[in-house]
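Researcher: Next sequence.
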Amino acid sequence: MKFLEYWIYLVLSISKIFLFSVYSGTEFQFSFFILNLASIVVLSSWTLLLSYRKRRWILMLLLFLHSTLLVSDLWYYRYFDDLLSISLLSDVTQMSDVGGGFMTLIQAEDLFFFADLLLFSLVLFAGRKNQETSTRKTKRLLAGAGFALGFLLFAIPLANSYINEEKWLVDEPISNMREYYQLGFWGYHGLDFAKGVSGLFTNDSITAQEASRIKDLDPETPSAVSDSEKPNIILVQLESFQTSVIGQQVNGQELTPHLNALKEETLFFPSFYHQTHEGRTSDAEFITLASLQPLKSGSVYTQYAENEFDGLPELLRNAGYDTAAMHAFEKDFWNRDDFYQNIGFNQFFSQPDFPDTQKIGMAVNDEDFFTTSIDHAAQLKEPYFAFLVALSSHTPYEIPEDLKQLDLTGYEDPLLRGYYETIHYVDGAVGVMIEELKEKDMWDDSLILFYGDHDSGLTQADSEMAQELGAETEVELFELDQQVPLFIKEPRMEEGRVIENSGGQIDIAPTILDIVNIDPPYMLGQSLLDEDNNLTVFRDGSFRVEEFYFKPDLTSPSGSGTCYDTSSGEKVEFAECEPHVKTAAEQLRISDLIIQKNALDQLNTDGD
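Model: Next structure:
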């Protein structure tokens, strides 16, 4: 059979994309099969012009490169539910310090991505004595026909989408996975590479229409803050803290006894969600401080750290606050030194400013971090805003033996065991911090918030955690994965209460500003203490609002998806969620506009 090695190459290539779908749990519909096959033919048909001796080795190399990119995408997807992007190159230098949990993403079955190389080698060996019998004209005809057919099969669906003005194509897309389903594996990566290159030459000036969209966010109301409304503010971000651990018991032991007790003297929000994406901890910080959405690829900290953001620290500083950030790792880790300065922090206390005592994971243990941070805060000029980023419960959840206190008999997953131990330890550190604040008279008159930055990464449907907690339905798995705790202790608060209204990290800054009577310009969130329903939008276009949860169908045109009732977990009519679908997408797009074009700097410059 002529060109046998090429037909085998096509079969192996498309089989590997199918294997990726199986391992990642992503969709592989017939239209997706055709789209991927077409792109493979377009990219490889030129090899038919080569001699047999050259062609077989080129195809072997292409198979190897294909497997390498696929398995890299798979490892990335297992952690972020997303695909690699050229924009992530700016994050590479930061990965070595958070790589402790990387090995957990690699599974033995991943070697099957390279099994085709052995099979293809056997084909080459069996055909090593084959002689080329096809004429140059035949090669050109077959290569040209293959390219043309593949191009048509790839381009026709795109042309149809463009004619129908589907948002994922004609506007800036809000999700990498939608592009993956609409363009196929190679189509997604090709477009992503083209965008990365074109981004070096495009003009980032905002248009008059874009400026108008952003200005609509600004209430244009001057803020006059009286001294009586300037409490000291302490905002604490807890690493990998899920709402599921609050009130949870394992073998009769409370995982978080101190945070459980804290509900008695604070506002507790059980329906509060993290909105992080690929930037994880840095995303949580950015969303919280700037009240904007994360990027669809990578982190604002590494790509846009020097841009202008009318964030919480700057607004408080303009109102007379001394502002300080505290993070007990290296100052330039994830460009925090640049970002913190640009967003309005007067001081940044990093690794050298904390004691060289027992480390847990990346940095000094949280108990010493918290108590030292209190000392730093006490030296600030009042009123002050202190932002603390804890680290002890960072993946891979390793804690010294002498600090383990739980009986975890019956738990099999070592990561889950480590997670519960570190969460229990951090809860104890929070308890020490609260007692310290009370002893130093820094508790009663202050505004103090604790919140989780993101999930543990152990919340998949088949995980031991999900099985233990009985999370089975779409809504239960969503809440297990996305809910993080939020505690707000207002100044001179006498008793706590539970607030059932839902919200997200994007609402923290507006809530703090609401309490101190500052109107937040250019923020996408809203106060959690007003009477309006908050729309909590996630990076893939899903959202939570009122009693509904919307999950988009990324394999279909923008706007498609399923609406769920969060109380019952049952599907409801799409009409219940439909009014918010476009609003959610617009929030993501306007956030991208502000970040990627440094739009606030342009607006401020034009206004001067």
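Model: The radius of gyration is 26 Å. The chain has a mean pLDDT of 91.
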